[in-house]
Amino acid sequence: MVAYLEVSDLDILKEYKKNNSRGLELVYDRYRKYVYTIAFHYASNKEDALDITQEVFISVFKSMGSFKEQYSLIPWIKKITVNKCLNFLRSRKVNISLNETTESGDELQNVFSSDEMTESAIVCKDTKKALEEAIKKLPDRERMAILLRHMKQMKYEEIASSMKLPTGTVKTLIHNGRKSIKQNLITQGAWEV
Amino acid sequence: MSCEKVETSLLQDYLEKTIDPLEKIFIESHLNTCKQCRRELSELKLMFWELDNKGNYETEYPKELDTMGTDLIDTFLGKKLKSSTRKVVDMQVNTLKISQKFLKYMPGAKQTPKILKKASKGLAKGVRKILIAK
Known about the structure:
Order of helices and strands of chain A: HHHHHHHHHH
Largest interface: A-B, 38 and 27 residues
Oligomer: heterodimer
Number of helices of chain A: 10
Number of strands of chain A: 0
CATH class of the largest domain in chain A: Mainly Alpha
Shape of chain A: elongated
Radius of gyration of chain A: 20 Å
Largest sheet of chain B: none
Shape of chain B: elongated
Strand content of chain A: under 5%
Order of helices and strands of chain B: HHHHH
Strand content of chain B: under 5%
CATH topology of the largest domain in chain A: Rna Polymerase Sigma Factor, Chain: A
Helix content of chain B: over 70%
Number of helices of chain B: 5
Radius of gyration of chain B: 38 Å
Structural class of chain B: mainly alpha
Structural class of chain A: mainly alpha
Mean pLDDT of chain B: 85
Number of domains of chain A: 2
Low-confidence stretches of chain B: none
Number of strands of chain B: 0
């Protein structure tokens, strides 16, 4: 109990062999915030983030038994989290095209650019909100790559292995993501004094 | 927007220090003369600062995150238990199947499917008649 906060992955795995339920508790306690943080910033709402967290831990629990003691758990949990996030929204996101028309026959892009919308958008929000908005608007894979790079400060190679993509692709995703974020921050007036 | 000579991604590499040394020399001398790129670079710097600012990712952890762990573990371990009872059931089903095999060798066993077919045809006719009558 004394070293509760400093339990290592090895301790967790050893404990798991002795007592399954205690071992799972330790994994959950150690990594729940880590997983939730990524899920939350990726999905940008609490409910989806909790769902993703659940899915991640069910996967983790399932393969705890086959996990080898010499490895650390974190890269593996990271991979599962990334994977669950990308598959989560992919399965339930409804794509809306700006050329679609509403029931009254207006094209969506005209609705969005009408005066009411722009006026409320011009009101300067604080940058944290603005950044959240900008990140939220990115395509799934760009969003994930940007979050891993900047929120988690991961290296390109690490991101590539977590996302199962070539490093070059990750670089392109991040570069494009940043371009859109910058553009979005400017239109939101985040840096205007 | 940066100018035509320089891609934004090159400026990003420059800021991240992942740029190739030759390109770095080129960029630095170019920045001396190009106002557009200097502006782009300062915008990028601002954005990098925002992106790397940990405060921007502060997350509120909902109560559910703490409470759902035990439930998750319980249901998970529960399922595992169920799956071992499942194994017993499967074994029993298997034993039944094997013990049924000898039925094939009972006298008259070959006729059974035919008789069953006839019976079911008769049954279908009967049902149809009843349905029509209704």
